[in-house]
Design goal:
Layout lengths: L3 E4 L2 H8 L2 H8 L3 E5 H9 L4 H11 L3 E3 L3 H18 L3 H12 L3 E3 L13 E2 L1
Parallel strand pairs: 1-2, 1-4, 2-3, 4-5
């Protein structure tokens, strides 16, 4: 069984650069998840209505994980631990905490944003 994935900035490359190899890789995962923070980041960054509609349709096939109390509590702990020492920002804290809470791998091009978080599996 393949692991589950939470994908962050990879979708930005997919939509802006139309990377067919990346799309094939992602579509090959058994299960792919995004959380509401990733969704908000993608929606916020898309100014074109036509591309926005295409993005919505594409994202609709993935599991959307909403923030809950447990994820938010974990994120608050990580902000306390890593905000000043490593510069952890709150969206990254919420993304990492979602992955840890749901035992997901995080697939991200910004590995340095997450490398210091224990128990987070970053690919």
């Amino acid at each position: 069984m393949k692991p589950f994935w939470s994908i962050r900035n990879i979708f930005i490359d997919l939509f802006r650069n139309h990377d067919a190899k990346l799309r094939k890789l992602i579509d090959g995962f058994e299960r792919t998840c995004i959380n509401t923070i990733i969704y908000f980041e993608l929606v916020r960054g898309e100014p074109n209505k036509k591309r926005y509609a295409a993005m919505e349709a594409y994202l609709g096939k993935y599991d959307l994980l909403h923030l809950d109390n447990s994820v938010c509590e974990r994120a608050m702990d990580r902000m306390r631990d890593f905000r000043l020492s490593d510069g952890l920002d709150f969206p990254d804290a919420l993304i990492a905490s979602t992955c840890i809470e749901h035992d997901l791998y995080l697939y991200s091009k910004n590995r340095r944003h997450f490398r210091f978080i224990p128990d987070l599996k970053v690919i």
